[in-house]
Amino acid sequence: MSDPSINVQISVLPNGPGVYQFYDSDGKILYVGKAKNLKKRVSSYFNKKQEYGKTRVLVKKIRSIKHIVVPTESDALLLENNLIKKLQPRYNVMLKDDKSYPWICIKNERFPRIFPTRKLIKDGSEYFGPYTSMKTVRTLLDLVKSLYPLRTCNYDLSEEKIEAGKYKVCLEYHLGNCLGPCEGLQTEAEYHGQIEDIRQIIKGNLRSSLQTFKQQMNVFAEKMEFEKAQRIKDKIDVLENYQAKSTVVNPKINNVDVFSIVSDETHGYINFLQLSHGSIVRSHTLEIKKKLEETDEELLQLAITEIRQRFNSQSREIYLPFPVEVEESLKVTLPKLGDKRRILELSERNARFYRQDRLKQIKIVDPDRHTKRIMAQMKADLRLSVEPTHIECFDNSNIQGSNPVAACVVFKNGKPSKKDYRHFNIKTVEGPDDFASMEEVVFRRYKRLLNEEEPLPQLIVIDGGKGQLSSALKSLELLGLRGKIAIIGIAKRLEEIYFPGDSVPLYLDKRSETLKIIQQLRNEAHRFGITHHRNKRSKGAIGSELERIEGIGEKTAEQLLKSFKSVKRIKEASIESLAESVGMAKAKKIYKSFH
Known about the structure:
This is UvrABC system protein C. Interacts with UvrB in an incision complex. The UvrABC repair system catalyzes the recognition and processing of DNA lesions. UvrC both incises the 5' and 3' sides of the lesion. The N-terminal half is responsible for the 3' incision and the C-terminal half is responsible for the 5' incision. By secondary structure, this protein is α+β, with helices and mostly antiparallel strands. It contains 21 helices and 18 strands. It has helices at residues 4-11, 38-46, 53-61, 73-87, 90-94, 134-147, 159-163, 171-174, 188-203, 207-222, 226-246, 296-310, 338-365, 367-381, 434-451, 466-478, 513-547, 554-564, 567-572, 575-582, 584-594, and strands spanning 18-23, 29-35, 64-69, 103-106, 114-117, 126-128, 256-263, 267-276, 279-289, 317-319, 331-333, 390-399, 402-412, 415-416, 422-425, 459-463, 486-491, 496-498. Strands 12, 13, 14, 15, 16, 17 and 18 form a 7-stranded mixed sheet that branches. Strands 9-8-7-10-11 form a 5-stranded mixed sheet. Strands 2-1-3 form a 3-stranded antiparallel sheet. A hairpin with a 4-residue loop joins strand 17 (486-491) and strand 18.
């Protein structure tokens, strides 16, 4: 049975692609993995019995889960590899299940071969990995093969044997896939220069290879050897195309720290991304509780110092969303466009996701704190004098003036209180007059609450713009409640919030929790009102069908519906059964009308 806190952490994971990290009780990283759907993948560790023993051991040790969201699956694959190389999680190396992980081997020999392997032999060879997918290994090796002509034979190419002419070039040489070191046609220094470039490519640094190829291309172009220059240009295109596909950000962005912040009334959430050779190698989000009226600038300045010290960052450039005072030796960039702006947006996205996850967890484990935070947010956003723990919303429903009705829905502590909902049939208004209907309903509602000495709301929401708001205000004025209860109107078109006496509406952020609650109130009032309106129209239609029969009035129609439940059954009934309900004379009229 999994830890309850783990279940809460899983419940708030997003359903998109990303990378997840498992930590133990000491905060040490256990495992890094990628997922097309983070919630489904992480849940799978805990909702089924694991087949392999080491996986079961891993799951038992997990105490916390962190994640990084990325735009695509390919970004998740690369980010996973970067984090594994950087963090060296124990279970990414040790957790082999039924097979070992693939590595790339640069063989310890005079003209080294490069090949994939699952066995690590201690003979002085270099091994890069482990990789979680053989597909990644093959992609890298295909790239290397397309750029550099390397030998594939297993000959012992010692200096003595080459000088003795023991070997002859093979088909690979004639195809251009090898430069013939076996016959001394390629020097050892030239070959090792290629190997060094390949090392850098495997590590994710493609810059040196690109520089080398561009120099070669320029040399051939100056000598007018354009075919050779074109072949080198093709290699540059291959390398740049691979680079674009395989890095999360622009490879020109190197050794940079990225910081962003999102905040609410009580906390700030600062995300940190560390970039190296065009790839994200670390992500961390710090939650800071606000003291008094701290600004985002103050929180970000504090977090930059704290995070850079914690992770011992040596980067000399940082990307920020707005200017902040930092140490003089740091170069500060405020990205506006292109790849730099996109990486800052990715950081902001991770900060928002972290905040949402924390709020969802709080909602589950501490609902009172969640409610207090929402109420404090609404009080600030709507400029109220008190927190709106009791809100009422009104909506009118009519179709071309027929059966005009209104609805009042009640929210307490940000949640619907359905037992307090009320329907109103419009009594004093003739025709489709929404303003007069609103005035009548608001007056009746609060006249009754005052008479019954029931508690009044802190906030009234009117579904409509300035016209409906003015009508509701008239009623509050008559009852002596104007100024005692806050009242706003919400117009549907652009979700403008109107305040009494203010012609300029307030536009809340579309992601604002305050706006979401007001929209929920408005939608609930509309739904509740429409349901009542439909029922009334339906009953009216049924009653009028019976009342159209000569000699049958409203009371007779009600008696028939009470006895037979529907018009269909009345139509199918015999004269005798109808007579039992309304007498023989009326029964004959009804039967004759339907037959």
